[in-house]
Specification:
The chain is 38% helix and 20% strand. With 169 residues, the chain is α/β, with parallel strands linked by helices. Strands 1-6-5-2-4-3 form a six-stranded mixed sheet, with helices on both faces. The structure holds adenosine-5-diphosphoribose. The site of adenosine-5-diphosphoribose (APR) has 25 residues, from strand 2 and helix 1.
Amino acid sequence: MILRAWQGDITMLAVDAIVNAANEALLGGGGVDGAIHLAAGPGLLDECRGLGGCDTGEAKPTGGHDLLAHWVVHTVGPVWRGGGHGEAVLLGSCYRRSLEVAVGLGARSVAFPAISTGVYGYPREAAARIAVDTVRAFGHDHPGDIYEVTLVAFAGDDLARYEELLAAG
Ligand code: APR
């Protein structure tokens, strides 16, 4: 599996599946969730209404509607509450479950935003480590299932942080 980092707006990516950092209601929001709904058009919200929400650490798929991506995998990251409330396990679960759902769809290329690092307040350095470690472990455990995973950096120095972790290999 190729694991790479890229700086920009996830809604612009022509990959098979993009992951959305949603909330348990799955009915839209701000941040990357808002950007994805805006770019996908109202059909995405209509489809999300039928999903019945999503637990934290879990993932559910929809179509990509007006996006370039064929699918959106909606996952719900943990709200950061100091680190002693299972946040790391739940964040790792978001990455792993999103990849499992993507494989179930037949996706070969997947892009992730930095789940939980915006409104949900997860420290960016710790979150980047979990992202890289969890996606790498998935690639080792499921060789050949996914061709390429893109970790999308949007804010601040996320790109440099991802690249450092990837180079440390
Ligand atoms: N492309 C890529 N990344 C983006 C984009 C975008 N267009 N817009 C924002 N981001 C980045 C942010 O910089 C942040 O690093 O996505 C990361 C996650 O931030 P949030 O979108 O705030 O997501 P999160 O912290 O998981 O909080 C989820 O926010 O809007 C709501 O509905 C969402 O309630 C949920 C909560």
